[in-house]
Amino acid sequence: MSVRRLADESVQPKSFAFSEENAGWAQKRIALYPEGREQSAVIPLLMRAQEQDGWVSRAAIETIADMLGMAYIRVLEVATFYNQFQLQPVGTRAHIQVCGTTPCMLRGAEDLRAICQKHIHPEPHHLNDDGTMSWEEVECAGACVNAPMITIGFDTYEDLTPERFEEILFAFRDGKGDTIPAGPQNGRRFSAPLTGQTTLLDTVAAQPAGGAAASGAGDDPKAVRPGRKSQIGEEAAPAINSPAPDEAKASVAEAEAEKDDATGPVGRKPDQAMREGATGAESGAIDGTAKSASDRKSPSGKSKGE
Ligand code: FES
Q1: Which of 133, 154, 254, 261 pairs with 90 at a CA distance of 20 to 30 A?
Q2: Ligand 1 neighbours (beta carbon < 6 A)
Q3: How high is the pLDDT of residue 197?
Q4: CATH of 94-184, one of 3.40.30.10, 2.60.40.1180, 3.40.50.1000, 3.40.50.880
């Protein structure tokens, strides 16, 4: 596990600005919070800055702090806490996060790390020769059942063997990352047993009106007991008052639309490398020729005004 610090000053751009599109998005995001609570937008804004430039620079942290009226140290604390935020320039096609916590380590994470060292760079947080790939080791990503696993951008790739991981690494390196399906790589469905479903195999018969007692199903352990609903307070079980099916569908649609608006670059396809076309190490920051915000490409690959 590496110490999370800001990148060296030699690679820090002198300034940061959101693109016109992202600046508009940021203002809408800030406006979602009540007056006086605008600082709650800090994580979405940091993520948007990362989607735009590929990583979170000191200038981005300070710009966002100014936008939200926060002390620089408060935004720095957030950016350095979550390893979803990249504090160094990362590969333009993929930054691979290898989980190295115990379950993944026991299931072969060291082999995955060795492959990164062989094909990308011996040290984490360093770019490969053409700047397309980088890697790091991170702590548990919450997919331990499917260990070992890696994260690239917004997707996880699980149940890996060294051979399958090499195929995935080469695909991203060659710009074909979107051909690799995210999730388990061994045919497993989600985190179900490899041999198939072993529980919840019985189909529960629909209960007739009047409940279990009326139907004579009083001995069925799965049956709803008469009066059961009235024993549970609405506060303890808000689902009792869940919306009617049509209302529920509308809320799901609204939530999905909101999610699309709130996360990810516009038009991002599933499994697409997070920052294809973004600027970062290659932005000129290293040689002092950093591009202006208007010259940077948006996550969708379009320059401002296109
Ligand atoms: S230990 Fe690797 S995902 Fe949890």
Answers
A1: 261
A2: 99, 101, 103-104, 140-144, 147, 149
A3: 78
A4: 3.40.30.10
